[in-house]
Amino acid sequence: MSDNPPPTPEANLKQIIDSAKRLGIELDEADALQWLTAVASQGEADITVDEKTGTFGHRITMLDFSPAELAHFRRIGNLVGFPDEPGVVETALALSGSSAQSKIQTYPGDADYFERVHIHAPTKLEAGQILARILREKALGSLKGPDHQLIEVKFGNYPCDVVKDGRSYKAGTPVAWMPDEIIASEIEAFTPEGKPVTIKWADMAQDPGWCKLDWVVADVVHKTLVNASNMLDVTWEAPDGSITPLDGYLDPYFQEVYLEAESIPVFTKLAKHVSSDALDEYVHQLEKEVKKYLTKSVNYGKVAKRMYNIFRLTGRYQAAAYLRELFDEPTTMLYQVWSLIRTIDDCFKPGSPITLDTLLGQMDELIVTVIDVLEGPQEKEIVRLLLRLRDLLVMEKPGQELSEKSEAARDEVIHLVNNFFYEKLSGMPEIKDYMDQMVEG
Length: 441
Known about the structure:
Distance between the termini: 25 Å
Helix content: 40-55%
Number of strands: 15
Strand content: 15-25%
Number of helices: 15
């Protein structure tokens, strides 16, 4: 082991400045130094509470959270969050992803939430039945409103191999419920041999798996549409006080900002049961996602976000600080393009509730934002491609597959944005080496 002391925040900052200048990235040196100093400090409590706002979370995560739009996040939280039921259900709703990093994510992508749902019941099956009830109540109560539409709910696992809407699903894979299927409480499908099979909502209580709800929400703050999601971590507390995750895994708390101080008791109770290896497991999962987005579903924006969380939690503060500044750089508003792509994909799914006018409105807002923020050849090219894609989408029919021309134009936009992020990421040798290792490993 080396006896050399670790680099000081000032030494790390100098290398970050050099990389940023080389790539034309705007850098707030005072803010970067403050973050480096705070993140490297030792002996502080793992969980930090902001008494002024009532928010709390892991101390490193809280460094990146700005309460400036807290009222906005709490408003959407009222839509996506689950109510407590005294003696039956306790909850702790948190922001995750870019929403939890609002101090640096000037142009966030989606509105991602994470919620701990803790159920008290005599048996595990009864806990699953309570989950089935509250999930359906939440879905039915938020199907459609003036500012939102439910897209799907993931609940339960397929009990056998099935074919649904022309696609095959293996036994044990998550079931995605569309709004009409939730209303009916059942899904009609076929076995691979062609025999009809009915998947019932109530039966999912026996094997709920991981649960997630997705909406499209009108973001009145940023005047655009966002994909809002709530990923649930559901636990069951038996009469003897033992706690069991219903999906078999108790999620760690390294990336969430919890919205209400009233949920500290249930959070504290559950945090005690998080594995001592949780950080290593969390980093391992992030690294698997980095590899996926580098090699299969190529998306360098998602790579950058996951590497930031890996680096800041594993002591690679120089690389983390560089990525932090990258996300605060105005041109990273291009990350919004992936939200647009997701809305396009949702719009052209069979039975989608998203109208073409809604999609085109989101495109128009993004194009205006690009024109306002970006300058030079990069702006002209992205605007040209977005306008071309818009012209093609006008001729498409929502709920049907995209034509080859529209698909090609969509892919061209993705390619341009990927190239932008790759150039910025590979400009720092430490990050470039890490990505190369992930691809080769």
